[in-house]
Amino acid sequence: MYINKVGSRGYVFTFDELKNTEFDCITNVYLIDGARHIFICDTFLGPKYMKQVKKFIDENLKSKPIIVFNSHCDWDHIWGNCFFKENLIITHVKCRENINKYALNEFIKYNMLHEDDVDIVVPNLTFNDKIRFDEDMVEFFYSPGHTECSSSCLDIKDNILFVGDNVESPKPYLTCNNIEKYIETLKYYIKINANVIIPGHGDIANNDLVNKNLNYIKSIKEIQIKL
């Protein structure tokens, strides 16, 4: 794991445990040290990794309630929820539904990638459009794209956007037939004009990568129209 500070109060924890697997990627967990709460965006593969994040919090930040956010239902973003099962865990209503539907099958399918202490813990607070913590200047909003249940986190104070798997390098990974919604999400990202884009996987980026992803998806749409 290595840590990058972003903005005045953000930290990106980057894990490479999936690098030498079929997925060949690094994974980011994003922390915002808010005024009243500490927010942790996605929880990677389990308590083994979230203990490292918690250790950093205990050694470097003031004690505050921790709120966890799941950007979408994929296994590599939720297995660490069980480390925070006593905390508030937020996600979109569709994400909670999909975790209930698919998490157990994914848990079995990718069993070689989790430790023995991993349990499936479902988020305990959901939203439909968005949920905002005004004193912390943090907002979570629905942003379908990589999945129908995807949502994003905006650090309003520093104008930093955590996009989960909706933005990837060199191109996005399409998992469902929702190209129109995906295009609208990426257009909205560009409208936000964030100073920093934090993807769920890969290097910290900016709107250049969002535009590349948008152009790619538009090209897929044009091919579908021709067919």
UniProtKB/TrEMBL annotation:
Q: Ranges for the Metallo-beta-lactamase domain?
A: 26-201
Report the superkingdom from the record. Answer: Bacteria
**Alphabetized UniProt keyword annotations:** Hydrolase
Coiled-coil segments on the chain, per record: none
Q: Does the keyword Signal apply?
A: no
Pfam families in UniProt: Lactamase_B
State the Gene Ontology terms under molecular function: hydrolase activity
Q: PANTHER family, alphabetically?
A: METALLO-BETA-LACTAMASE DOMAIN-CONTAINING
Name of the protein in its database record: Zn-dependent hydrolase
Organism whose genome encodes this protein: Clostridium botulinum
